[in-house]
Amino acid sequence: MEIEKLFDKGQRILILSHHNADIDAVGASIALYEYLDSEADLAVPDSVSKGAKDLAGGYEFLKNPGLENYDLLVIVDCPSKEQLKPLDIETFKGKKVLIDHHSPGNLADIVDTDYTDPHARSTSELVYELLGDNWEPTKEAARALICGIVADTSHLKLAGKKQFKYISELLPDSGSEYSEILSVLSTPIDRSERIARIKAASRIEGYNINDSIVVFSYVGSFEAASARSLIRLGADVAIVFSPRDNEMRVSGRCRREMTEKLHLGEDVFSKVEDVLEGSAGGHDAAASGNGKNTDFGEVKEEMLKTMEEVLGGDREKL
Ligand SMILES: [Mn+2]
User: Fold this and answer.
1) What total number of domains does the chain contain?
2) How far apart are alpha carbons 24 and 302 in whole angstroms?
3) How far apart are the CA of 70 and the centre of ligand 1, in A?
4) pLDDT interval class at 187 (50, 70, 90)
5) What CATH number should be reported for the domain holding residue 302?
6) Is the pLDDT of residue 291 over 70?
7) 133 and 199 in one domain?
8) Residue 13 CB: number of other CB atoms within 10 A?
C-alpha cells in the first residue's frame, strides 16, 4: 500500500520511535512530521538519546503520551514491543504502521501495515523511499534524513551506492553544507569520560603475543569507552577492568581484523567466568563481564593464558 493513503485527513497521528531514540529514529520521525505538515505529534518512550538531542532540538517530542488520544500510530526504527515500554502498544485500538530496518521482531506481527526492510541501512532512507518523488522535503526534513542515514552507516563507512545517491539528492534540499550537517552529529564527550580514557591510556600494561598487541588497563568507570579508545590508540586487543567495592566489571574490544584470529567473547571472556566469579561473554570484537572477584590481576592472568593458546605464542611484555 502506498504510504500516503494511510494518512487520511482528520486522523490524529502519533509518530513514535524507540526508547532512548537515536539519530536515525529522530531523523525519520522529523521527516514524517514535516511531510505531514506538522499535523501529527512526535513522541518517544522516556527519552531521546544524548546523541540525538541536537537534532531533536526545536521539535517537541512528547514523553510517554496517552495512546488513546490517537487514531494512527506510526512506529519508526523499532522492531519490538519491549523497546516501546512503558507505552503498552497492545492496548492501542487504532491503526498501527511500522517503518523499520531491523530484523523483524514482535512488532511486525501486530501492526496493520509493515514496512520493515532489514536490508535497508537506516529507517531514514526507508522513509525517504516511502514518501517518494511527489514530495519536496523541507530543509528540516532533508537535514534530518541525511543525519539518520549518516549516523546509521557509521558516518558513511557502511554506506552503499543508494545511500550516497540519497544524500546527494537531499543535500540541495537541506540548504546546508555537508559539514554543517555533520556538526549536528558530533556529541561532545563528557569530561569524566575523557579523564577515564586518559587514565586508561596512562595505566596500560601491554603485551605482544605472536605479533598481536594486547593491552590491559583499569578505570573507575567508562571501561567500555576506554577499551574502545585503546583500540584507536593502536592496540589489537584492549581489555579494561573496573573494580568496585564488591564487584568488578570488565570490558574488551578488538580490532576488526583481529576477529579472524580470535573470538573475544568465546575465546577469552567466557573462559574467565570462574575466576571472575560471575558471568562474561560477548561478540567476536566486543565482550564484557562482571563478577565478585575484584582482583583484576587474577582475571588478567587467566585471559593472557587463553590468548597465548589461541594466538599460538608466549607473551612478551611491550
Ligand atoms: Mn536505525
Assistant:
1) 2
2) 40
3) 24
4) confident
5) 3.10.310.40
6) yes
7) no
8) 22
Cα 313 to ligand 1 centroid, rounded to whole Å: 41
- Per-residue pLDDT of 13-58, as tens digits, reads 999 999 999 999 999 999 999 999 999 999 999 999 989 999 999 9
CA distance 155 to 17: 21
The alpha carbon of 157 and the centre of ligand 1 are apart by a number of angstroms equal to 15
Domain boundary among 160, 185, 210: 185
Cα-to-centroid distance, 123 and ligand 1 (Å): 5
**End-to-end CA distance of the chain, in Å?**
62
CATH code (residue 25): 3.90.1640.10
Cα 106–Cα 35–Cα 44 angle in degrees, nearest 5: 40
Ligand 1: centre distance to CA 49 (Å): 13
Q: What is the pTM for the complete model shown? A: 0.73
DSSP β-bridge partners for residue 14 = 41, 73
Q: How many whole angstroms from 153 Cα to the centroid of ligand 1?
A: 9
